[in-house]
Amino acid sequence: MTTLFLSSTGGHLHELDELAARLPPGRRLWVTHENAQSTSLLAGRDVEYLPYVRPRSPADVARCLPVARRLLRTHDLTAAVSTGSSIALGFLPYLAAHGVACHYVESAARTVGPSLTGAVLARCPRIRLWTQYAHLADSRWQHAGSVFDAYVPAAVPARDGHRIRVVVTVGTAHPFRRLVEHLVPLLAPGGPLERATGRPVEVTWQTGSTPVDDLPITANPLLPAADLDTALARADIVVAHAGAGSALAAFAAGRAPVLVDRRARFGEAPDDHQSQLAPELARRGLALARSVEEVQVADLLWARARGALRARECFPRLEPR
């Protein structure tokens, strides 16, 4: 009896890992894309790596079907759990039609309604649908908590040390050049943050697909999950795009980040769902929500004094009603 855990990388994989850690143990098979995050996060686990399934690509979704058929034939699959995105469309409808208990957990980033993937799967029979927000529960979507429910805000004392350590992570799927350009002068040697704290500023930049070769920074396109976790644990300040995975990583490291939302009109995301998530986490006291042009030194100092604590576990109970 094997449970299949499948998702794309980035925030979807981070959320799925959080959920999987809170579910009963058993034989597990992971299906995702291969990159520095996934190979680090899933090291030592049974993993099937797929070519990247592009968002809104029917051809890529169709290419998942032979893999789903093979895994069903070669593994005793009894359940499948996915947090999206398009990769879920390539597996869940087929597996559900062949008797596998399938569960789709909509991303915690979707605070006002389902994603396109969720809307499509809602039309498929025999797939259990879970929302992470009580106000979105209805006859089709069930609610049993959110990955964010495990965290509460906390004040943290300023750390002693010669430097102010900052982590900036802007996600991997789409460029977020506007945020990087805005932060470079704020965090530069002799810049506003250094003057405000009286300490030199050391920055770890995770820039994903953002082109930064012409900027005066040392960039890491994608850090292994373990390296990013280490950098976050050492950080005094975290600034991130308003993605669920980046927020969860900051919370797990005990930091309350400044979250900056991507905007579709700048080609930074397919829609403006990050403009929904950042205010939700700010409402919980776990983050500061800002647009790119709003980020200033006062916000960085706010993040330096704020943290997050893991208070309790809350997760969807993936079982019949």
Characterize the structure shown.
The structure is a single chain. The protein has 321 residues and is an alpha/beta fold. It folds into 2 domains: 2-145, Glycogen Phosphorylase B (Rossmann fold, 3-Layer(aba) Sandwich), CATH 3.40.50.2000; 153-310, Glycogen Phosphorylase B (Rossmann fold, 3-Layer(aba) Sandwich). Helix content is 32%, strand content 23%. The protein has a 7-stranded parallel beta sheet. β12 (237-241), α10 and β13 form a beta-alpha-beta unit. The two termini are 21 Å apart. The model has no long low-confidence stretch (mean pLDDT 93). This is Glycosyltransferase.
Kindly list the characteristics that best describe this protein.
15 strands; Rossmann fold; alpha/beta; single chain; 2 domains; 12 helices
Topology:
Layout: E1 2-7, H1 11-21, E2 27-33, H2 36-41, E3 47-50, H3 58-62, H4 65-74, E4 77-84, H5 86-97, E5 101-105, H6 116-121, E6 127-131, E7 141-143, E8 151-155, E9 164-169, H7 177-187, H8 192-197, E10 201-206, E11 219-220, H9 225-234, E12 237-241, H10 244-252, E13 258-260, H11 274-283, E14 288-290, H12 297-304, E15 306-310
Parallel strand pairs: 1-2, 1-4, 2-3, 4-5, 5-6, 6-7, 9-10, 9-12, 10-11, 12-13, 13-14
Antiparallel strand pairs: 8-15
Helix pairs in contact: 1-10, 4-5
Protein name: Glycosyltransferase
Pfam families: Glyco_tran_28_C (PF04101)
Domain Glycosyl transferase family 28 C-terminal: 166-290
